[in-house]
Design a protein that fits this description.
The protein has 238 residues and is an alpha/beta fold. Strands 1-2-3-4-5-6-7-8 form an eight-stranded parallel β-barrel, surrounded by eight helices. It is globular and about 45 Å long. Helix 4 links the parallel strand 3 and strand 4. The chain binds pyridoxine-5'-phosphate. The site of pyridoxine-5'-phosphate has 19 residues, from strand 8 and helix 10.
Length: 238
């Protein structure tokens, strides 16, 4: 059964709106784990628009399950991540002006840099995942560069209309099969919610689901406990 890692960036976004201490990011991580999450994901962005270095350092000390740090291939962030030493890093592309991560990494264009980062983080005991578009050839290249996992970008599937949704989920299934036969671990995330998740759960060999916006949005109405529990229930029902 796949595990849920809750992305709590949006808790930090709310806090940053007023520059104070509420809502408490560390307390939110505890609530997620107490209600079924197997881990916590945060994205330490170059502009520090939500998660701060101090949040990541504190989470390293409090998250009991997998602490997954999403990060771009920038020297500043690589240096910060080496100080934090999370359980896992997920390398993502990052553009300053984007509202959220737009698409997967260009693994081919960054192959030398990625291979170097994979080696350096393995040396300090950190698992490495690459956030990629669901193409079998990108899965194979990620394996070749030494990554432990790929995280398939599910955003295109999640935004697809009735004409293309079948095609998009089939692309994900094909990339999942490629991961299983290549022997690389499989994560997925971006845009997943309480209704579009069930078809994704049919993908072969899913290990970890990174879900943030839909859970935090539901939490506004139900509370974080119930929002996390409901997502875990959907995962278990498959
Ligand atoms: N996975 C990655 C690599 C991401 O960048 C994000 C967004 O920060 C997520 C998963 C979570 O996406 P969402 O907030 O849409 O659930």
């Amino acid at each position: 059964m796949p595990e849920l890692c809750v992305n709590i960036d949006h808790i930090a976004t709310l806090r940053q709106a007023r520059g104070g201490t509420e809502p408490d990011v560390i307390a939110s991580a505890r609530v997620c784990e107490a209600n079924g999450a197997a881990g916590i994901t945060v994205h330490l962005r170059e502009d520090r628009r939500h998660i701060q270095d101090s949040d990541a350092a504190a989470l390293k000390g409090t998250v009991k399950g997998c602490f997954n740090l999403e990060m771009a291939l920038s020297d500043d962030i690589i240096g910060a991540a080496k100080k934090i030493v999370p359980d896992q890093i997920t390398i993502v592309p990052e553009k300053r002006a984007e509202l959220t991560t737009e698409g997967g990494l260009d693994v081919e264009a960054n192959r030398a840099k990625i291979a170097k980062i994979v080696k350096e983080f393995h040396e300090i005991g950190v698992v490495v995942s690459l956030f990629i578009e669901p193409y079998p050839e990108t899965v194979l290249l990620s394996k070749e560069l030494g990554a432990d996992y790929v995280e398939l970008h599910t955003g295109t599937y999640c935004n697809a209309g009735p004409q293309t949704v079948r095609h998009e989920i089939e692309r994900i299934y094909a990339a999942a099969r490629a991961a299983a036969s290549a022997g690389i671990g499989l994560n997925a995330g971006h845009g997943l919610n309480y209704t579009n998740l069930p078809p994704l759960l049919k993908a072969e060999g899913l290990h970890e689901l990174n879900i943030g916006h839909s859970i935090i949005s539901r939490a506004v109405f139900t509370g974080l406990e119930i929002a996390v529990q409901e997502m875990c229930r959907i995962i278990k029902q498959q």
